[in-house]
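tool_call predict_complex ligand=2-acetamido-2-deoxy-beta-D-glucopyranose
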Amino acid sequence: MDSGGDSDKKFQTEEIETRQPYAPQGFGQKTKRHCSRFWWLHLVIFCVLFLIIALCLVYVGMPKIAQHDVDESYMEITALKFLNPTSDSIVLTQEVILHSPSIYTPTLDSFTAASWLVTNGTFGPTPMLMIPMPQIHALHPVSNHSVENLNITIANLQQVTDYATALITQENVTTALTGKTKLHEGKLPVVNINYNSSSTYKGLNGLQGFNVTDVRVNLTAKAGEPNLSGFAFIPNPSVVTVALGNVTLTLSTTKGVVGNSTINDMTLVPGNNSLPMTSIVDIDALSDSLVNGFVTLSISGQSAIYNGEHLTYYESALKSNVLSLDMNVAQIIKDSS
Ligand SMILES: *[C@@H]1O[C@H](CO)[C@@H](O)[C@H](O)[C@H]1NC(C)=O
Ligand SMILES: *[C@@H]1O[C@H](CO)[C@@H](O)[C@H](O)[C@H]1NC(C)=O
Ligand SMILES: *[C@@H]1O[C@H](CO)[C@@H](O)[C@H](O)[C@H]1NC(C)=O
Ligand SMILES: *[C@@H]1O[C@H](CO)[C@@H](O)[C@H](O)[C@H]1NC(C)=O
Ligand SMILES: *[C@@H]1O[C@H](CO)[C@@H](O)[C@H](O)[C@H]1NC(C)=O
Ligand SMILES: *[C@@H]1O[C@H](CO)[C@@H](O)[C@H](O)[C@H]1NC(C)=O
Ligand SMILES: *[C@@H]1O[C@H](CO)[C@@H](O)[C@H](O)[C@H]1NC(C)=O
Ligand SMILES: *[C@@H]1O[C@H](CO)[C@@H](O)[C@H](O)[C@H]1NC(C)=O
Ligand SMILES: *[C@@H]1O[C@H](CO)[C@@H](O)[C@H](O)[C@H]1NC(C)=O
Ligand SMILES: *[C@@H]1O[C@H](CO)[C@@H](O)[C@H](O)[C@H]1NC(C)=O
Ligand SMILES: *[C@@H]1O[C@H](CO)[C@@H](O)[C@H](O)[C@H]1NC(C)=O
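tool_result ok
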């Protein structure tokens, strides 16, 4: 019986509906009516979605883009100067061209960068120096930046020694700067950035091309006084200027040590260097090693002293870089007498 009552109700409802003054609608018209009635709701949903997407782009996408762009940038080192060294500090000047493929021109806050030696793609165990980096405004595609005359304390002597050795002995050297900083781009929110950028540049390539020119023997020199002088010719294919101080080199032949040479205020600049050199050489011992008037000298670093302080990092580097020089001793003695 109940079911009978239900069908009555249904019938009534249908009747009421058919009595409505307009014809049944299609889906399109329904939507239209819904839209015109709830336009404000659609606007609100659109705005909320837009806001969510915009915020995602700004707070999730933009930091990713910014970090990516920073990762894509790299420094081309155009000048590097190591001056006024002490046993535990160095005065650094560095000029770079920053290559930034990004179309944005962000500003990075100043930060303290750790400087690492990278050997065959592997970072050293600890940073060698901590370098205070100035604020950097990166332009597209390149911009010049520099730090000048920063007196920096050596953070790790072993790493600096390894770096000095790589710099003097290798054709190419790689170092990296790492640190955390903040990036600003217009009115966009500030982004935290992990800076980690490697640069490869030319080293001094083992001082290849080393020679001694204008050699003179002083036959009247007293014992202990320099009795041989000349100019050390040292090509420097790198962009590095390095002040090594007063450098003493040990000279040996196959028969052993025959003397030493001193280059005072030995500062190597990019390009060819010709530095006055004085030597105390046992000419008799040298003569004993002559082959057809020539002697092959083996030259290795002994000490590097700057304002009375031993620069052990340069001393190790110079010791590990043994130079070989064929000297026409017969001709030199003839020229000098
Ligand atoms: C780096 O590689 C060169 C050549 O591949 C090799 O002679 C040198 O020993 C390597 N250095 C280190 C520290 O692995
Ligand atoms: C950047 O430095 C290079 C030399 O390293 C120079 O030739 C160039 O003019 C500089 N550019 C600007 C914009 O200062
Ligand atoms: C650099 O600082 C050290 C102390 O950290 C100091 O001994 C040295 O003289 C300074 N060098 C220069 C060139 O001022
Ligand atoms: C050093 O770099 C130059 C230029 O990138 C390259 O031609 C040369 O082979 C490199 N030398 C070594 C020993 O890796
Ligand atoms: C920098 O990136 C290199 C890989 O490119 C990674 O080996 C090194 O650990 C990173 N260093 C820091 C301090 O993030
Ligand atoms: C060194 O210089 C002398 C002239 O002073 C020259 O005769 C000799 O060929 C040079 N040696 C090398 C290896 O360049
Ligand atoms: C040779 O040595 C003597 C004594 O040390 C010195 O007086 C003289 O000036 C030297 N000659 C040259 C050409 O260096
Ligand atoms: C040069 O000086 C050394 C050391 O003082 C001495 O042994 C040597 O005989 C001197 N040689 C000449 C040619 O004066
Ligand atoms: C250079 O050799 C001479 C003679 O052998 C020696 O007296 C002098 O102390 C040596 N100089 C240095 C800086 O080692
Ligand atoms: C440096 O010296 C070498 C060998 O003498 C020469 O070929 C080269 O042109 C010189 N370079 C400069 C910049 O003077
Ligand atoms: C090198 O030695 C000379 C003479 O002993 C001294 O006058 C000069 O100051 C020394 N140079 C350096 C950089 O220590």
